[in-house]
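Quick one, probably user error.
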């Protein structure tokens, strides 16, 4: 047992600790939003959520559980607490989700380890056969910095870089809180290859193959993965950069997977294009914190902004819930970024982008809100939490 007062340890876009009570409050707030937003429909749905501890993956798990009563197996790669430091936020999120799901009578199980590995696939298959049965929906929501390839043993690290030429723009220096110029050199061919290996669709293919070989894909199974396209302001280092190429690989593989599942099981595979959200991963992308700070100021003023749980509420209530047929664009994408990319929104963001500097960025953006949302990810500055009270940090989730 380790009871202590936990204060944030934040430097730039890195937070090295988390607050268990704050994370619990975050999870509870997301559950409440789903309860209020989607009438509960009991189902016999089994869901596998790969990348289930934060962001869109956690929100997907909550939506599927509390809207449809889904039994969920969640995969995560998170740090438990030890004598020197707290657990990671995703670990505490999972503890909180397990506690609440158990209290509310839902089956939730989780495995903590490297989802890219053959060992995790084998363990997940064992757990599914023992406690769940065939999977009705597979959510793939991994945003990882590196991957050890299970066949070759090679280590690949992803990078967020432009391709072909340097990119020069502006960003928020999160340490100094000033607007600063940034130049990013283009990726090498090896960096591009590595990024595709980490963030492309090969691992999803491997998961579906493993589940199919184990006869764990239900008839009419649905597979959904997530991506981001965003405004043209972010394209040089996102859509047109290394991560964009990786997402192109994901798209090609999902389209092929859709055809295969349709022929074999009457199933489908989709990609949902989601809006920009505050995550530790996105905070590390140059220009994105500034872009989100401007975007959220504009979208909040119009009352159309959504956190991940709001996006997943729309995804599963309008597109992928039981009995629904998703609305797709001409490239077979589900578009949950429609509000972000409304012309009046993108025009307003572009106008402010051209004007913003250190002297006016607090007026032209909601940087304070961005900073608060970033700290919220780790359980800090969450409304209703007493941060002067000592809390138990060495928690475990029951599996």
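Nope, works fine. Designed sequence:
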């Amino acid at each position: 047992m380790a009871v202590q007062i936990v204060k944030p340890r934040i430097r730039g876009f890195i937070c090295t600790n988390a607050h268990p009570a704050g994370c619990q409050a975050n999870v509870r707030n997301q559950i409440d939003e789903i309860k209020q937003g989607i009438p509960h429909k009991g189902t016999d749905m089994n869901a596998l959520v790969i990348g289930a501890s934060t962001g869109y993956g956690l929100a997907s798990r909550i939506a599927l559980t509390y809207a449809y009563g889904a039994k969920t197996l969640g995969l995560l790669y998170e740090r438990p607490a030890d004598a020197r430091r707290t657990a990671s936020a995703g670990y505490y999120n999972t503890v909180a989700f397990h506690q609440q799901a158990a209290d509310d009578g839902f089956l939730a199980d989780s495995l903590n380890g490297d989802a890219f590995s053959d060992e995790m696939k084998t363990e997940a298959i064992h757990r599914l056969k023992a406690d769940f049965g065939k999977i009705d929906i597979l959510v793939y929501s991994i945003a990882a910095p590196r991957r050890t390839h299970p066949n070759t043993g090679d280590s690949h690290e992803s990078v967020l870089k432009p391709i072909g030429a340097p990119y020069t723009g502006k960003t928020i220096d999160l340490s100094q809180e000033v607007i600063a110029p940034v130049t990013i050199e283009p990726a090498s061919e090896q960096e591009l290859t590595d990024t595709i290996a980490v963030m492309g669709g090969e691992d999803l293919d491997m998961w579906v193959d493993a589940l199919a070989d184990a006869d764990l894909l239900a008839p009419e199974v649905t597979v959904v993965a997530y991506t981001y396209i965003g405004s043209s302001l972010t394209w040089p280092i996102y859509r047109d950069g290394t991560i964009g190429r990786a997402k192109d690989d994901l798209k090609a593989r999902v389209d092929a997977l859709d055809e295969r599942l349709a022929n074999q099981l009457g199933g489908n595979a989709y990609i949902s294009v989601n809006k920009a959200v505050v995550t530790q991963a996105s905070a590390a992308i140059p220009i994105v914190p500034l872009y989100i700070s401007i975007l959220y100021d504009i979208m909040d003023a119009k009352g159309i902004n959504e956190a991940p749980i709001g996006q997943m509420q729309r995804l599963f209530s309008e597109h992928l819930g039981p009995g629904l047929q998703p609305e797709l664009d001409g490239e077979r994408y589900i578009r949950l970024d429609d509000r972000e990319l409304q012309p009046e929104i993108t025009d307003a963001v572009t106008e402010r982008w051209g004007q913003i500097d250190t002297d006016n960025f607090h007026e032209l953006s909601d940087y304070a809100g961005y900073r608060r949302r970033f700290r919220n990810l780790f359980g800090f500055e969450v409304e209703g939490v007493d941060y002067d009270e000592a809390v138990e940090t060495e928690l475990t989730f029951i599996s």
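The chain has 13 helices and 15 strands.
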